[in-house]
Design a protein that fits this description.
This protein is mainly alpha-helical. It is built from 7 helices and 2 strands.
């Protein structure tokens, strides 16, 4: 695993997602397609907190227990799109430093996740994956309201 590539990938994928989100009209940030889908703001709130979740998995050696009160408190710090973007950037920068500080032994440790035993080196790439996943979701939402341009 290349730590530098992983840290840069997380940051680059976040910036692509932010560019896509910012190309969406603000009145669509809290739109709920079909009355059931997630909002773009809720996706960005998740993205902002995701590096902490990854660190929690690594620290605890397993997926942290769900804590709705803690999540609700965190969402209050990222209640607007500007806040979510600012926190996502800060957390991603901090996450890059965290990655660079891990030793080879740390990277090769394993974590128990619901889908199986996973190496820390693999989990570190989840932030980039999650950002890219949400980029696709935002582009799909844009298609639903008639924007056919891909923003990334």
């Amino acid at each position: 695993m290349n730590k530098d590539i992983t840290a840069k990938g997380a940051k680059q994928s976040l910036e692509g997602l932010i560019k896509c989100v910012q190309s969406t009209p603000p009145d669509k940030w809290e739109w709920v397609p079909m009355g059931k889908a997630r909002t773009i703001l809720s996706m960005m709130q998740e993205v902002a907190g995701f590096p902490r979740w990854i660190k929690g998995c690594i620290t605890e050696g397993k997926m942290p227990e769900s804590d709705s009160a803690k999540w609700d408190a965190f969402k209050q710090t990222v209640a607007t799109m500007d806040q979510a973007i600012a926190v996502a950037r800060k957390e991603t920068d901090d996450f890059g430093g965290y990655i660079m500080g891990l030793s080879d032994d740390d990277i090769n440790k394993t974590v128990e996740l619901p889908w199986g035993t996973t190496r820390v080196g693999e989990i570190l790439s989840y932030h980039e994956w999650n950002n890219t996943y949400h980029l696709g979701q935002v582009n799909y939402i844009q298609l639903l309201y008639g924007d056919e341009e891909m923003h990334f």
